[in-house]
Amino acid sequence: MPLKKDMFDCVVSIGTLGWHAPLNDGIFKEVGPILKRDGIFLFTAKKVKKLSKLKVKAAQLLWPILPKSFKEKHEFGVKTFHTRLDHSEQTIRRLAKRWGFDIYEIKIDFMAETEFYFVCAQKGIK
Q: What residue spans of 1-126 are helical by DSSP H?
């Protein structure tokens, strides 16, 4: 959806990143321009456990030999969403800095029995 540059004071994303979309450069690339200077980006990002990453890697390696019926059912999850699951505090800080955001707080908490990061970032001058 085309939005005007510097349109919002705050963008909030709760329960999406890591559950339904990966936290990556694309998110900051989309949010950065629509936030006003000094705008706030509040979001949660699911903390991905190492076992989950290993399962995804295994699925990606086995993808070429998996049956067609399995591929049709799981293609979105294996080939798109799960390819960039790396939500660690270090990754979040690195992404934010790359896109001109200052992190004010990263707090680990629980939501629906899942560990997640609660992040408050402010758009700086780039």
A: 25-34, 50-62, 68-79, 89-98
Q: What is the pTM of this model?
A: 0.69
Question: What CA–CA distance (Å, rounded) separates 109 from 38?
Answer: 26
What 3-state class would DSSP assign to 89?
A: helix
Distance CA 95, CA 92 (A): 5
CA distance 58 to 91: 22
Summarised one tens digit per residue, pLDDT across range 97-117 is 999 999 989 988 876 667 788
pLDDT in tens, 79-96: 554 444 557 888 889 889
Domains and CATH numbers, the chain: 1-48+86-126 (3.40.50.150), 49-85 (no CATH)
Q: Based on C-alpha coordinates, what's the Rg of the chain?
A: 16
- Residue pair 46/114 in contact by the 8 Å Cβ criterion: yes
Q: Kind of pairing, strands 8-17 and 35-46?
A: parallel
